[in-house]
Design a protein that fits this description.
mainly alpha, about 280 residues
Length: about 280
């Protein structure tokens, strides 16, 4: 009861108003806020890219650096504003967009200690995913949810598959080390395992290749096995995509975000948040 009263007292009119502007894309103010935010994100990405051009004149470089810090300041204030608005800031901070928002500002501040870290600001491109909410492309959110459900459902099968592939790589690398040896470039088992990965994935750099007949026979088997292995994860994910699609084909996802934790991807007929259970406005 105490927590409920505390949340009700925290749900002040100004917080509800700011939540409508910052988190909701179905209102005119929310659309304008997100549209300006997306424009600033695009500008920041262009600034980060131009900063890496070696021939950039020094005055322009200083201007780009100033613009980068100005945009980082804006994004930092926006991130703090989102934490203040939601009733459960830690839940939002741990969500997908919460982590993306943090990573969008962290590299610039880290660059004060580790110069060059601002190149990681390219992660801001992930914030452009908000475009699906701004333009009410809720049906794309549904499709994204299908992909996420399919990946989660196939995670165990993929894990077993990766364990099998790792076993093949270790065995194949050890065999090639024994067969070919350092004289033909297989100087150690780790190096031979690298060759097995390159061959099994059909990449084939060619920097290391077998010279003996037995080694070439083993390499041929690994190559053939590689073609079969490629199809396995594709089939697993495809099957789970079909299952997830059938489950969600009757569900309609909107762009509303929870005022408590900032979660989205709610069904149109949802009354409560699917993450924290709070009532949706």
């Amino acid at each position: 009861m105490t927590d409920s009263r505390a949340e009700q007292s925290a749900d002040t009119p100004w917080r509800r108003k700011l939540h409508t502007i910052v988190f909701e894309a179905d209102t005119p103010a929310g659309r304008w806020f997100d549209a300006v935010l997306l424009a600033l994100i695009v500008v920041s990405l262009v600034v980060v890219m131009l900063e890496t051009v070696p021939s950039m004149p020094e005055p322009w470089r200083r201007g780009l650096l100033a613009a980068e810090w100005a945009l980082t300041g804006v994004f930092s204030l926006e991130y703090l504003l989102r934490l203040v608005i939601v009733r459960r800031p830690l839940v939002y901070a741990g969500s997908f967009f919460g982590l993306v928002d943090l990573l969008a500002i962290l590299p610039t501040w880290v660059s004060l200690i580790f110069p060059g870290a601002q190149a990681l600001l390219a992660v801001r491109v992930l914030r452009l995913l908000r475009i699906f909410r701004v333009f009410k492309l809720a049906r794309y959110l549904s499709e994204a949810r299908v992909i996420g459900d399919a990946l989660r459902a196939s995670s165990r099968k993929i894990a077993v598959f990766l364990f099998t592939v790792s076993t093949v790589v270790v065995v194949g690398g050890a065999l090639m080390y024994l067969i070919e040896g350092p004289a033909n470039g297989f100087t150690s088992i780790p190096v031979s395992m690298y060759w097995a990965v390159v061959t099994l994935t059909t990449v084939g750099y060619g920097d290391i290749s077998p010279a003996t007949g037995l080694g070439q026979a083993v390499a041929s088997l690994v190559m053939i096995l590689g073609y079969g292995i490629i199809a396995v994860p594709t089939g697993i994910v495809t099957a789970e995509l079909a299952n997830a699609g059938r489950k969600l084909e009757t569900q309609h996802i909107n762009t509303q975000m929870c005022a408590h934790c900032g979660a989205d991807d709610h069904r149109s007929d949802s009354k409560f948040c699917r993450h924290c259970g709070a009532a949706l406005h």
